[in-house]
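Hi everyone, sorry if this is the wrong subforum. Our group has a chain we'd like a structural model of before ordering constructs, and none of us has done structure prediction before. Sequence below.
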Amino acid sequence: MEDPNRKIWIMQYLLLLSAACFISQLYASDDQLYESFDDNFEGRWIVSEKQDYTGVWKHEKSEGHDDYGLVVSEKARKYAIVKELEELVDLKDGTTVLQYEVRLQNGLECGGAYIKYLRPQSAGWIAKEFDNESPYTIMFGPDRCGATNKVHFILKHKNTKSGKYIEHHLKFPPSVPSDKLTHVYTAILTPDNELRILVDGEEKKKANFLAEDDFEPSLIPSKTIPDPDDKKPEDWDERAKIPDPDSTKPDDWDEEAPMEIEDDEAEKPEGWLDDEPEEVDDPEATKPEDWDDEEDGEWEAPKIDNPKCTEAPGCGEWKRPMKRNPAYKGKWQPPLIDNPSYKGIWKPQEIDNPEYFEVEKPDFEPIAAVGIEIWTMQDGIVFDNILIASDEKVAELYRESAWKPKFEDEKLKQKEEETTESDGLKGVQKVVFDYLYKVADLPFLGEHKVKVLDLLEKAEKQANLTIGILASIVVIFFSIFLKLIFGGKKKPAAVVAETKKTEVAESSNKEGSSEEKEEQNEDAAAAPRRRNTRRDN
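Answer:
Right subforum, don't worry. Here is the predicted structure as tokens:
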């Protein structure tokens, strides 16, 4: 009898052999370019010698990996580097897949991380002078700065009538991931004029090269354009409404009447101290010993609230408060009526567009080189695994075999770091709470101790309220601290008298509880009269 383990072993071997054959076939497919940067880029890639491009490219490992990439090494620099292809990539027939990886190790606040797919050098450029003017067919990849946050796809297409090359920008492109992980960007161009943009293998945007709503400006120009020589007639009236020419200002309309007037019915409160200033010199303040009148000027005592004003309704010159003037109407304006001469908003007449053309397929220029020409404020940008292929499965294989293991590893490390940071924060919070509990036991808190302890318990149990509650506790501590240093204001005489009356009334009331008496006493003592200002009366 045949050994069953031997059968299992044979089946596993056959599966592995089939998978190996499948993978080898994919890798052996017609890839126009695959750059893994496993070897140093020098000699294969050409760094621009143009004066503005001072950024230094480096061949380094991506952080946390043994995988090498092309790295932007300095902040706030322009970078330019290009690799010429052995053969031209024809985009007109079949499917073309453009794919590459980018890792923003230090984030991307302002700068690009895109790739330019360049036209042949017969279009007027050379590798060692590669710059932003070098003619490209497609520009693809992340760009972020200020309000800009998108994965560019720009097609530079020739107008067959004018001969001009026009940049056509993909409308509503996907946004750039905001983390610091390695992401893979894929653009798939298919024979049916379709474009698909993938981020990390997930489709984020689908468009048609010939659709009017997918590119700005559209690839096919409009049939008509506004006549540039047409001029608006001098008597053309675009005003839909005009002031009524027959309307006149009413006789009783007073444009000079003020918006506010004094309240004649207001009366000065009894006890108002006209001759007392609102602030007086601090009698306890003394001139500092090191004060030099010649250098520092004449010393003046700081001002404090006039204590006499706390017992009175107000101090200083009393003025009547202002109120809205019932006679106020403002500047008179004639009412608007429909304009009998209104002709609408003028537009130039439409004429045939001399640059209009129709195509069934985009007239793509071939790709002769791949270049990275960027300006960025961040360093640590890693480019890797640049691919041009004619088969979507090849791109998918590279994503699964080259990108995904790195991405999963980075996600795991990011999660571990976030957990560590969270644990560290909890440790810091514990130290803070332990310290606050110790402070809460100090005698100077007095009657506030219970309130502080209650707030601390809530802050520990409800993490979403911790910051707000801690801020409240700090305010309480600070208020008590100031009170201890400077002392509280004396109770106004009227309030003291009222407090005494309340205490007598409470002592004669046999039915009131002791807690109610204490609360009433505290409320009476804690309700100082607010000083009125002149406008309050």
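For your construct planning: Residues 284 and 372 are 73 Å apart (CA to CA). The chain has seven helices and 25 strands.
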